[in-house]
Structure formats: structure tokens, C-alpha cells
Amino acid sequence: MKIIPAILEKDFKKVKEKIVAIDDIFDLIQIDICDGKFVKNKTWQESQQLKNLKTKARFEIHLMTENPEKEIKKWQFDKIKRIVFHYESLKDLKNFSWLKSVPKKISLGIALNPKTKIEVLQKIPLRYFSYILFLGVEPGRQGQKFQEGVLEKIKRIKRVNWLKKKIKIGLDGGVNEKNIRKIKKVDLDYLIIGSYFWKKWRKLMKKSIKKK
After folding, report:
1. Could you give the 3-state DSSP secondary structure of residue 89?
2. Lowest-pLDDT choice from 88-97, 173-182, 200-209
3. SS3 letters for 9-57?
4. What number of other Cβ atoms are within 10 A of residue 99's Cβ?
5. What is the domain partition of the chain in residue ranges?
6. What pairs with residue 2 in β-bridges?
7. pTM exceeding the 0.85 threshold for the entire prediction
8. Which among 15, 17, 18, 25 has a CA at the least distance from the CA of 47?
9. What are phi and psi of 143, to 5 degrees?
């Protein structure tokens, strides 16, 4: 199971600080983009600043925004490895032609909110997507309590017969030391960790500074 740290910040200074702190350790970092419409929270979202940043790592952009078909265009550059957006943000379930313009080197993911049933995925062309991201909390804010019912959804989707290709499964939100063992049992391909990661990371950094 691959661990991917998540960054959710309101200004680029803090985004940059966190990227620099882990750039040599993680080859993939998730950045959460919230527009204040699809979710209440509003974060930093100036793609050009990330494009100009010198970094070894590559990024997954998690779009918690309305109109992903428009928003996705500005995140298509070399540093971006994956882009994930929400099923709940889609307004036209019949038109996915806009996904054809996404470069093949960028993988696409579809995210589901905790209360969204997995059956809705049968309404979209899954051939465009490399992975499904299950949200363990309501989107837009870190530090929330994990909704354990999501684990049952993950178990169920692994048993369905309508996934015609191998598609990776990820989980994002609410992970901590109390539920990590339960989460590991569902055999995920990757796990996104936000507030818990940075809480533990700060403690590790303080210890390393004291040793020096």
C-alpha cells in the first residue's frame, strides 16, 4: 500500500513549505484544491505557482471543485502525475469528451463522498479512469472523524463484476493511529493521509532538530 501525504492550505507559502519538507522523501504528493463552492472551504489554487516551483516530487491534484471539466485544464503540465475529481461534481453524465484532451501521461481518478453509493460508477465511462478514490470524511476539510462505513463500500467494490479492467483503489481522509489497522485489512492500493501525517511529521522534525 502506497502512502501519499496530502496538502490542504489557503496560501502558496504554506503549500511550498510542506512540499520542500518532504520533497526528497515522497515521489508523489497530493494537493487539495477547494473552490468554496463545491465545498465550503477555499484553498490556494494558482496552478502557475506550482508549475514554476523547482521540485523532485510529482503531484496528484484533488479537485474539490465545481465544473471539473474546466478546472482540469489548468493542471495539465509536467509536474502533474494524477488528477482526481468528484463524481458528485459532474453535471452532465452523458458527455465525457473533455477527458480525451487530458495527456495520457496524466492518470485520472474519480472520487466518491462517504454517502455516495458505489453503483453510481456504472453511470460513467470507467475506461477513462485509472483509480477510484473513496473519501473517509466529507470533502474540503482535514481533521475530521473517519466514517468507518466507507470500508464496507471498498470491500463491496472489490467483489462487483462490472469493473471490466483492473482499477486501483485509494482512501483519503480521517486516517489515524486508531483506525489504521482496520484500514490496512481492506487491501488498498494507496492511502492519502493529511492532518495526521503532518501532526506526526512535525514531531519527527522536532526530534531530529534536538539530536543535531
Report:
1. helix
2. 200-209
3. CCCHHHHHHHHHHHCCCCCEEEEEEEECCCCCCECCCCHHHHHHCCCCC
4. 16
5. 2-211
6. 190
7. yes
8. 15
9. 90, 10
108-124: burial string, b at 16+ Cβ within 10 Å, e else: ebbbbbbebebeebeeb
> Residue 22 corresponds to which amino acid?
I
Question: Which residue do the cell numbers 492518470 mark?
Answer: 107
- Give whole-number Cα distances, 71 to 2, 65, 86, in Å: 27, 8, 12
Question: Residue 35 phi/psi, 5° resolution?
Answer: -100, 0
> What's the confidence (pLDDT) of residue 36?
95
- Cell 521540485 -> residue: 55
Q: What is the DSSP letter of 94?
A: S
120: pLDDT strictly greater than 90: yes
Contacts of 187 by beta carbon, 8 Å cutoff, 6+ apart: 1, 158
Helix (DSSP H) and strand (DSSP E) numbers for the chain: 6, 8
Q: Is 84 left (phi over 0), alpha (psi -120 to 50) or beta?
A: beta
Q: Which residues contact 206 (CB under 8 A, 6 or more apart)?
A: none
Class of the CATH-defined domain 2-211: alpha beta
